[in-house]
Amino acid sequence: MSKLIRALKIGVPLLLAVYLMYKTFEDPAKRDELFEAIGRMDLIWLFLSILCAWVSHLVRAQRWRYLLIPLGYDTRLWTRYHATMAGYLINMVLPRVGEVSRAAITSKYEKIPFDKTFGSIAAERIVDLVILGAITALTMFTQRAIIWEHVSTMLEQQDSGESNPYVFWIKVGVVLAVLIGLYLLGNSLRVKILGFLKGLLDGLLSIYHTPYKFRFIADSLLIWGLYLLMFFLPFHCMPETALMGTGAIMAAFVFGSFSVVLTPGGTGTYHFAVGLALSLYGLDLGIGQALGLAIWASQAFMLIVLGALSLLLVPRYNRNYEGHTAVPVQKNKTS
Questions:
Q1: How far apart are CA 25 and CA 201, in angstroms?
Q2: Helices (H), 27-42
Q3: Overall domain count for the chain
Q4: For residue 168, how many C-alpha atoms fall within 13 Å in the half-sphere facing its CB?
């Protein structure tokens, strides 16, 4: 039964990604509209977006050091970077396997126990979740009137029998939520919730205990600042999106951020989520999806190229390396 569940965890997101990409290009008219919009984009903004994303990944690799040093391991930046990029690449094919791969690569070449590296990754993910939660809460609060207005309109159209372009995707979301709920219930919802809360607490405490807490927080804010800049820049690619307000862009950022958990790397879901969010602010759905597709494709291209390059370079970089530098275990200091 456990093997079946693991297979479903990998297979269902992959099949969903393939299906949604098929739906994207199924209609010739819609396909031509997407390609036409992408074809007239000013690609310099996508290049700058890629650059911001790459710097954020480099900062992430640097930030990781601040969680490993308190455990007694001082590791090399480029090993952490290559492991991070390789993990992103693997995540695009096998959901949630990238973090395991990232920890395994670092453990192998830095000679660190796997549980230590994986635990530090889990801790930083908790911090990222908290930051994303804060961004989401702020966005939903400031944009609540617009979002509720469109939800109400959609419900009224459903009651009157009118068609609505968003209903299908909302139904997909409901089905996914039900499946996730059944999975959680089948594995003891209470245990899952308590385990999540304990992991959240442990992760936050590990940040508190690092002697580099202020550097860690500064790097975390820099990473998310770069994520936002990475998302904002492509809006200048087209005249239709260049004048979109900050509220609309933040709503699209939040929608897109949560869509990536449904399929590997957000394949098939990211552009739909971005297009849906921007359509709430009056942008044509096709133009919004074209922008989302361009952002997703440019980032996916970067991760594939640099991730594959990292997989090739990391063994060469560590060919004659004997492992991490041991440092004293430190706690409750500031820097």
A1: 44
A2: 28-39
A3: 1
A4: 7
Give the span between the Cα atoms of 302 and 54, in whole angstroms.
8
Range(s) of the domain holding residue 131: 2-326
Contact 281, 249 (CB under 8 A): no
Q: Residue 277: CA atoms inside 13 Å, Cβ hemisphere, count?
A: 29
> For residue 334, is it within any domain?
no
Which helix (H) or strand (E) segment holds residue 303: the answer is: helix 285-317
- The CA–CA distances, whole Å, from 329 to 46, 71, 154, 273 equal 43, 5, 57, 44
Cβ count near 208 (within 10 Å)? 10
330, 72 Cβ separation under 8 angstroms = no
Residue 3: how many CB atoms within 10 A of its CB?
7
Can you tell me which residue has the tokens 């996508």?
46
Which amino acid, residue 97? V
Q: How far apart are CA 189 and CA 114, in angstroms?
A: 28
Is residue 332 included in any domain, yes or no?
Answer: no
Distance from C-alpha of 289 to C-alpha of 285, rounded to nearest angstrom: 6
Question: pLDDT per position in the chain (335 positions), as tens?
Answer: 566 666 666 777 788 888 888 888 888 888 888 889 999 999 999 999 999 999 999 999 999 999 888 888 899 999 999 999 999 999 888 877 889 999 999 999 999 988 888 888 888 888 898 899 999 999 999 988 887 776 666 555 554 555 555 555 555 555 555 555 555 555 555 565 665 566 556 556 667 777 888 899 999 999 999 999 999 999 999 999 998 999 999 999 999 998 888 888 888 889 999 998 999 898 998 999 999 999 999 999 999 999 999 999 999 999 888 887 877 776 555 44
| Residue 295 included in any domain | yes
Cα 135-247-288 angle, rounded to 5 deg: 105
